C-alpha cells in the first residue's frame, strides 16, 4: 500500500494510544465461494474455481474539540484453486478510511485515506468516479462494499442547510482491480491472458502504465449541492484518470531472428466529467436522476486495439419505495459513446432491487438484477442474511451471468457463483 495510506494509519494509531473514545469495532469473517464453470484461458474448456477467504476489519475514532480522527484497516487472506490444479494463496493488510477531520461552524476539512461517494442511483452511478472499484466485491456484495479508499483532501463550505460546495483533491492515483487478492488469477478478471489463432494460443506479457505522483497528475473536482423546495440537486465537475485500465496488444520488433512475444499494455488515460444529479419525494416514492457527460475520454473500440479519443454521455433515472418490511428500487441508465472516426453506439442498463426483512430484521432477503437489453446480457444476485445470535450473521449468495455480446457482463457469462459467509461483529 502507498506511503500516504500507512502514514494515515499511523496517525490513527497514535490517536488511539492518546485515548480513543470507545473501544474499537469491526468484523471478522470467513467466506467460501465456488464458480463451477469458469472458462479456461483461450476459451478452451471450463474448470471450476473454489476459494476460501478470511476477512477482518477494525475501526476506532478519537474526538477532541473540533478535531476528529478516524482509523480503520483490514486484513484479507485467500486460499483457492482457480484455473489450474495449483493452490493459490494470498494475503494483504491495508489501511482504510483513515482520516483527520477539522470541523467549523460552516465548513469542514478532511485529509487522509478513504472513500469518496458521488451520485444517487443504485449500483450503476455515472458520476461516482473518484473511488475505484474491486470487481469481485461488486459482484459478491454490491457497489457500496466494492469502493476502494484513495488518498484525498476534501473541503466543504456549508453556508446554510440548503447549500454546500465540496472540493476534492486526489494526489495519488489508485486503479480499480478485478480482485485485491492475486488479481492475475482471479476468475472475475477481464484482462486477456493469451492471443489465439488457428495455430494455437500464445501467452501475453502484461505491462501496466500507471500515473505516478506529480503535480501534472493531480486529480480533483468540485460538487455544489442545493435544496430547492422539495428537490435536492447538485452539479459536479471532475478531472481524473480512468480507474479501470484500457488494454491493447502490441508485438515488439523482432530481433536476431527470434519471434517476439505479444505484449498487453494497460493504460489509464485522463478524462473530464461534468455531472448533475437530483432527488425528490413523490408520495411514497423517492425519485432520482443522474447524468455524467465526458467531453474528453478515451474509448475502447475493439479488443486488442488502442483506445481512441471521444466523448460519452450517461444519464439515468430511478425510483424506490419502502413499505413496511419491503424495499423496491429500479434504475435505468442510457449511455452514448462517440469515439472519433468510429460509429456512435448506444446501450441501456436496467437495475432492479427487491429487499424483504423478516422477524424484526433478523432475516433479510435481497435480490439484485442488472440487465443490458441491447447486448442481451445481465447479472442476477440473490442473497439471504440470517442473524444467528447477537453479532453473528450467516450470508448465502447465488449469482448468475448471461449474455452473448462483447460487453463485460457477456464476457463473464461463465462465472456463475455460490457463496457462504460467516460474519461476527464486535
Shape: globular
Q: Report the oligomer.
A: single chain
Report the structural category.
mainly beta
Task: Count every helix, treating DSSP H or I runs of 4 or more residues as helices.
Answer: 4
Order of helices and strands: HEEEEEHHEEEEEEEEEEEEEEEEEHE
Would you count the extended β strands for me? 23
Q: Largest beta sheet, briefly?
A: 18 strands, antiparallel, barrel
Q: Write down the overall mean pLDDT.
A: 88
**Beta content:** over 45%
Low-confidence stretches: none
Terminal Cα span:
26 Å
**Number of domain units:** 2
**What is the helical fraction, as a range of percent?**
under 10%
Using the CA coordinates, give the radius of gyration. 23 Å
Report on the architecture of this protein:
The protein has 426 residues and is mostly beta strands. It folds into 2 domains: 100 residues, no CATH class; 207 residues, no CATH class. The chain is 8% helix and 59% strand. It has 4 helices and 23 strands. The longest helix has 17 residues.
List keywords for this structure.
3-stranded mixed β-sheet, 18-stranded antiparallel beta barrel, mainly beta, 426 residues, 59% strand
Question: What's the helix and strand layout?
Answer:
Elements: H1 3-19, E1 25-39, E2 46-64, E3 67-81, E4 87-103, E5 107-114, H2 135-141, H3 143-146, E6 150-160, E7 163-170, E8 194-197, E9 200-203, E10 205-209, E11 219-228, E12 231-241, E13 246-250, E14 263-267, E15 270-282, E16 285-299, E17 308-323, E18 326-339, E19 345-358, E20 363-372, E21 377-389, E22 392-402, H4 408-411, E23 417-425
Amino acid at each position: 500500500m502507498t506511503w500516504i495510506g500507512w502514514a494515515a494509519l499511523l496517525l490513527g494509531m497514535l490517536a488511539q494510544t492518546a485515548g480513543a473514545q470507545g473501544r474499537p469495532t469491526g468484523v471478522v469473517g470467513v467466506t467460501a465461494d465456488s464458480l463451477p464453470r469458469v472458462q479456461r484461458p483461450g476459451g478452451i474448456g471450463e474448470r471450476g474455481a473454489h476459494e476460501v477467504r478470511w476477512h477482518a476489519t477494525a475501526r476506532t475514532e478519537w474526538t477532541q474539540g473540533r478535531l476528529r480522527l478516524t482509523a480503520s484497516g483490514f486484513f484479507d487472506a485467500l486460499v483457492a484453486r482457480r484455473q489450474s490444479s495449483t493452490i493459490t494463496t494470498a494475503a494483504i493488510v491495508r489501511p482504510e478510511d483513515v482520516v483527520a477531520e477539522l470541523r467549523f461552524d460552516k465548513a469542514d476539512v478532511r485529509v487522509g485515506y478513504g472513500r469518496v461517494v458521488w451520485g444517487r442511483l443504485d449500483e450503476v452511478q455515472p458520476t461516482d468516479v473518484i473511488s475505484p472499484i474491486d470487481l469481485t466485491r461488486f459482484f459478491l456484495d454490491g457497489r457500496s462494499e466494492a469502493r476502494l479508499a484513495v488518498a484525498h483532501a476534501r473541503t466543504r463550505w456549508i453556508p446554510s442547510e440548503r447549500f454546500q460546495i465540496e472540493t476534492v483533491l486526489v494526489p495519488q492515483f489508485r486503479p480499480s482491480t478485478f480482485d485485491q487478492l492475486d488479481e492475475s488469477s482471479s476468475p472475475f478478471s477481464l484482462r486477456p491472458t493469451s492471443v489465439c489463432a488457428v495455430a494455437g494460443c500464445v501467452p501475453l506479457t502484461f505491462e501496466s502504465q500507471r500515473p505516478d505522483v506529480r503535480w501534472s497528475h493531480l486529480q480533483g473536482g468540485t460538487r455544489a449541492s442545493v435544496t430547492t423546495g422539495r428537490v435536492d440537486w447538485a452539479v459536479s465537475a471532475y478531472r481524473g484518470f480512468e480507474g479501470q485500465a484500457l488494454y491493447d496488444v502490441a508485438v515488439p520488433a523482432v530481433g536476431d531472428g527470434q519471434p517476439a512475444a505479444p505484449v498487453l499494455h494497460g493504460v489509464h488515460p485522463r478524462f473530464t466529467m461534468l455531472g448533475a444529479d437530483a432527488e425528490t419525494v413523490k408520495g411514497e416514492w423517492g425519485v432520482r436522476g443522474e447524468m455524467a457527460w465526458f467531453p474528453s475520454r478515451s474509448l475502447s473500440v475493439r479488443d486488442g486495439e488502442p483506445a481512441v479519443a471521444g466523448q460519452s454521455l450517461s444519464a439515468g433515472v430511478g425510483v424506490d419505495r419502502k413499505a413496511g418490511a419491503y424495499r423496491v428500487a429500479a434504475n435505468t441508465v442510457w449511455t452514448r459513446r462517440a469515439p472519433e472516426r468510429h460509429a456512435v453506439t448506444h446501450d441501456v442498463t436496467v437495475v432492479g432491487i427487491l429487499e424483504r426483512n423478516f422477524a424484526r430484521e433478523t432475516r433479510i432477503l435481497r435480490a439484485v438484477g442488472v440487465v443490458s437489453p441491447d447486448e442481451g446480457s445481465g447479472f442476477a444476485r440473490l442473497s439471504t442474511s440470517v442473524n444467528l445470535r447477537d453479532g453473528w450473521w450467516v450470508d448465502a449468495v447465488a449469482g448468475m451471468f448471461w449474455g452473448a455480446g462483447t460487453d463485460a457482463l457477456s464476457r463473464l457469462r461463465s462465472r456463475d457463483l455460490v457463496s457462504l459467509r460467516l460474519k461476527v461483529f464486535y
